Amino acid sequence: MAFKHVCVIGLGYVGLPTAAVLASRGIRVTGVDVNPKTVESINAGKPHIIEPDLDMVVHGAVSKGQLQARTEPVEAEAFIIAVPTPFTDDHKPDLSYLQAATNAIAPVLKKDDLVVVESTVPVGATRQVGLWLTELRSDLVFPDPAAPDTPHDVCIAHSPERVLPGRVLLELVRNDRVIGGLGHDCAKCTKTLYSTVVEGDMHLTTAATAELVKLSENAYRDVNIAFANELANVAEPLGIEVRDVIRLANYHPRVKILNPGPGVGGHCIAVDPWFIAATAPDRTPLIQTARRVNDGRPAAIAEQTAALPSVQSGAAIACLGLSYKADIDDLRESPSVHVVEEIRKRISNTILVVEPHVDALPDPLAILADVSLSTLDEALAKAGAVVLLTDHKVFLEITGEQLAGMDIIDTRGAWKR
Ligand code: SAJ
Questions:
Q1: What order of strands is seen across the sheet that includes strand 316-320?
Q2: Exposed, middle or buried: residue 322 (CB in 10 Å: 0-12, 13-18, 19+)?
Q3: Please, what's the b/e burial string for 114-151 (b: 16 or more CB within 10 A of its CB; e: otherwise)?
């Protein structure tokens, strides 16, 4: 079956690029978002997020009438759910957005439709979508993973996104995809939908397997980054340059240690491992420890900062970069924000934060005494110590002369590089 009209629920970092790329391939796409401002901006052809080339693709799709945004779903042949799945304060998955999206599409679902969950979810969440829909639409038969061959009216699958912020449009098309169905036909049907855009291979499996695959990818990266960060925790107090250790160890043919840093941020790697831990709290000591090692880095960086001679003499501190990685505007779960908070907990020196991608400090920092958003020039002129937190291109251009006489902590190893 060829899909002529697709409804994408959630127009964020994943949903909007997905909607725009599907639309660019001639499919009529209705994008749905609860935020009227997001809807308005997309209908004006202007994406509300920063991602290379996205503005061009969105503008093209909207001006040709292939992509239209609204606040409520409409009848379509396929529904792709790409809403946030955050965690609660005690690291448990919060499925309220997924449930709200399911509730929103239920009234417009009809026989032979397809529902795809793209959001990263804990194991069992795709099945839960089926159970919610069964309650809401008793007139339709939904697939039962315990009896995947039983006939059903609507197909449901999980096809987790794997795109890297900063390379989303490229990776959306080129990456392989794992597609897990609740019923045997559900994954095949989803493959047909994605084959309009995906050039990579598509690997079909069950929904529960696909859920754990996606979580495993991000937990794997988190554990590996934690290893690098733990080495940094060992090397730094010994006065050993951890990046030299890693560079030299990586000459071994079977060793590939990642880069230490101020911690792990973003809405994916810092969150998804907890979804595995929530499912199996007693069987995930490694995954939980890795999270704690990475979450402990901001405090370690703050300790080092507080011990700098200039800082002990009361000098102002320039903290460069707040986003969770270079050259993007995403501050979610950013360890750089936590470093500033941790420094403030320890000392009262003036802190000048430089982040070229934001107009104002985020809430947790805005309320702190003597912490302000500054320009790079002003921060370098006033500070006695500089802490590089995010390796934005603009910071890599800072010269040795500009840093002369200052105490430096380079959490990314960027200036040495
Ligand atoms: N980081 C390090 N050291 C490293 C690599 C990364 O400290 O050696 C830090 C970064 O600075 C950043 C965090 O880890 O704070 C995560 O950055 P990232 O570039 O590794 O990944 P994300 O979160 O931007 O995107 C990840 C990707 N997952 C994997 O690489 C396994 C992406 O493919 C997923 O689609 C995305 O999560 C997601 O949405 O799940």
A1: 371-373, 351-354, 316-320, 383-388, 407-410
A2: buried
A3: bbbbbbbbbbebbbbbbebbeebbeebebbbbeebeee
Q: How many CB atoms lie within 10 A of CB 346?
A: 14
CA of 123 to the centre of ligand 1 (A): 21
Q: Residue 388 and residue 393: Cα distance in Å, rounded? A: 12
Would the CB of 161 count as within 6 Å of ligand 1?
A: yes
User: Which residues touch 147 (CB under 8 Å, ≥6 apart)?
Assistant: none
Alpha helices, H only, 54-146: 54-63, 96-105, 125-136
Identity of the residue numbered 124: G
Contacts of 330 (CB under 8 A, 6+ apart): 13, 165, 266, 267, 323, 324
Q: What is the pLDDT of residues 81-119, one digit of tens each?
A: 999 999 999 999 999 999 999 999 999 999 999 999 999
Residue 262: CB within 6 Å of ligand 1? no
Please state the atom number of ligand 1 nearest to the C-alpha of residue 218: 31
Confirm if 87 and 274 have CB atoms less than 8 A apart: yes
pTM: 0.95
Ligand 1 binding pocket includes 217 (Cβ within 6 Å):
yes
- Those residues with Cβ within 8 angstroms of residue 90's Cβ, 6 or more apart along the chain or in another chain: none
Q: Where are the beta strands (DSSP E) in 191-333?
A: 202-206, 316-320
- Compute φ and ψ for 52, nearest 5 degrees: -50, 130
The radius of gyration computed from the CA coordinates of the chain, to the nearest angstrom, equals 23
Cβ-proximal residues to 319 (8 Å cutoff; 6+ apart), any chain: 336, 339, 340, 343, 351, 352, 353, 354, 387, 389
For residue 251, which amino acid is it? Y
Contacts of 327 (CB under 8 A, 6+ apart): 166, 392, 393
Confidence of residue 329 (pLDDT cuts 50, 70, 90): confident
Please check whether residue 270 is in contact with residue 264, taking contact to mean a CB–CB distance below 8 angstroms: yes
Bridge-partner residues for 67, per DSSP?
Answer: 29
Q: What is the pLDDT of residue 251?
A: 98
Closest residue by CA, ligand 1 atom 38: 268
Return the ligand 1 atom nearest residue 217 CA: 31
Which tokens in the block code for residue 249?
């160890």
Distance CA 244, CA 241 (A): 6
For residues 9 and 157, the answer to whether their CB atoms sit within 8 Å is no
Q: Are 375 and 331 in contact (CB under 8 A)?
A: no
